[in-house]
Amino acid sequence: MLSNVSRPAFRRVVGIVAAGLAVAASTGCSVPVDAVAGISVSDDGHLLGVMMVCGHQIDGATVYVDSENVNKQKTVGSWTADRPLTAGLATWSLQSPSAGWAVGRSLTRLTPKTTYILYGGTEDNSWSSESVSFGLTDLDQLSPGMVRYDDISEDGDESPVTVPLAEFKARACKDR
Question: Angle CA(134)–CA(35)–CA(133) in degrees, nearest 5?
């Protein structure tokens, strides 16, 4: 399918979305959360993004380097869904092109001892996802069909969990 949007215009839109997501994630303003991001691996070992949208929409996702210093929160990958993701589960490759996804920035090589964040949001910052943090050691512990995400307890404590995809799908939007 041919697009009527030029590459430079598309790149600008993706850049604006990625910058907006990074700023929203690092500032005191908060965007309402209505999705949960996770990571997984495919049968052939490729890193996958996993997004469970609870009721509204998510337009894309960004992976960035986690840092308390906003100037060090560098985007290392970004993707835009061809159509907004609505309620339900979506997965896509973070390392190669995926049907239904446009790559704004190809995922750069991940490095040891670095924490990354996968975060989803909308172009207009109307909705966002809970993010998931991960490093290379976390990826080494993933197997196909398992999803790592940051679970939030009733008292607001956040902790990483790895569960089967079906359990992620059943639990991620609970209490939203």
Answer: 10
